[in-house]
Every structure is written in C-alpha cells, then in structure tokens.
Design a protein that fits this description.
hydrolase; globular; 8 strands; 236 residues; alpha/beta; 27% helix; eight-stranded mixed beta sheet; Rossmann fold
C-alpha cells in the first residue's frame, strides 16, 4: 500500500469507527483493469477488484466485508458477476482476527486498515461519492451497517446481507440502507437479527429497504443484484 500519513485526530477517530478518507482527484496512476490487486504487504492484505472496464469519469466503489472466519477472496466471490456488470470497483478488507474488531471489544485496528485502503484507492481512482457503498455478509453485514451509519457523510449506501446487529456509536449523515435476510437462517435467526435490525434503524429515522428470501444463512445472487442497483449511473 502507498505510504500514507494520518493526523492524530484521524487516528483517534478510528476508536469510535470514524473514517477520514474522502474521494478526490487522483494523484497516482490507476491500477490495471481486470485484476484483483493486493494493497500493501504481508498476510491479511485488502484486495481491490478492478473490473475489466470502468465508466468514463467518476466510478462506483463498493467496500465488502466477509463473514466470521472468512477472507476477502471469498467475500468477492459472493458478489458473483455483479461488479463487472456494474463496472464497479470492489474493496475487500480482511479482519485482523476471526471476526471484526467491534465484535471483539471495540473499534480500532480494522477501521484503521479500512481508512488506509480507502485513501489508497482514492489516490488512484476518481470515486463517485453518490455511488460509494459499504456492504458485508453475516458478521461483515453487522460491521458494514455499523460503520455505514457512523460514516454516513462518506458512504451513500450501507448494505447488510443477513446482519446480526448494529453497534452503538456515532451517527453521521443519512445513508440509504439495504438489508436482506433468509427466513430459515439458523445461524442469525431472522426474528432477532434482520427484522430487529431493520425495525431499530427505521425507528432512528433511516430509510431502509428490507427484503426477505426463502433460505438460510446464504447470499442469493438476486439479493446482490437488488442491493447493488444503487450503484447504477445517476440519471441524466
């Protein structure tokens, strides 16, 4: 990953789930298309998927979090061919431990890695702020929704595929929210997870699109397609 520096204020923000990275004008060449690029060195590096073709001008970006015990490659695989069809960059992050930091005591390391990775992407690609989304499956869904509403001044959309909860913390902006959940989920039961998460977010005033499907703890392609529709080019 490029050598980057962060202010003390930005580093302090990581402890509450706040991100400092913001889209802007690229200052470095884009990475080659049609490939998955590791960002940084060593194990557990973020992966950036660059589709075979990108639209002219500003491009959409999706951050994707894996479920507990998984990894970025499997998280990307869950999206199928949607990133190519949507001409969308996908940034997949690896949790430091078996699952995400906030599920193990509080925000910190994983937020810092995301901030570094986002900053590196913004240095190379002109990301469209209107089509900047954060998503995840299972524990990654809980993490995506939690960070999405903590950073609604950065993310336009927060997507939770079969989430378990939303963490307490700061609320910034009003991102659009998408939640899907299987009615037969035995790992994160729908009544106390997907339905409850949606109800709580709506009570807080968020506009939530909520879809249920027949099945268990899985991510059907149709749910991916429905969620990523928000990354289509804006009308006009």
């Amino acid at each position: 990953m490029d050598a980057l520096s962060f202010s003390e204020e930005a580093q302090a923000g990581w402890l509450s789930g706040r991100l400092s990275a913001r889209p802007g004008s690229p200052i470095a060449p884009p990475l080659p298309a049609g490939l998955q690029h590791p960002l940084g060195e060593g194990e557990g590096r973020p992966l950036l998927h660059v589709p075979a073709s990108l639209p002219e001008g500003e491009v959409p970006l999706l951050v994707m979090f894996h479920g507990a015990g998984s990894d970025p490659a499997r998280a990307l695989h869950r999206l199928g061919g949607e990133p190519e069809q949507r001409q969308c960059l996908v940034l997949a992050i690896k949790s430091r431990s078996a699952t995400w930091d906030v599920l193990q005591g509080g925000y910190g390391y994983d937020v810092a890695v995301l901030d570094y990775a986002l900053t590196a992407v913004f240095r190379r690609f002109p990301v469209d702020p209107r089509r900047l989304a954060i998503a995840g499956f299972s524990d990654g869904a809980s993490y995506a929704l939690s960070l999405g509403i903590a950073n609604g001044d950065l993310f336009a959309q927060a997507i939770g595929f079969s989430p378990g909860f939303v963490a307490p913390g700061p609320r910034r902006g009003r991102p659009g929210i998408f939640v899907s959940h299987g009615r037969d989920d035995e790992i994160l039961p729908i009544d106390r997870c997907g339905r409850m998460v949606t109800a709580l977010l709506r009570e807080e005033g968020y506009a939530v699109r909520y879809l249920e499907f027949e099945g268990g703890h899985i991510l059907p392609p149709q749910m991916v397609s429905e969620a990523l529709a928000s990354l289509a080019p804006p009308a006009g």
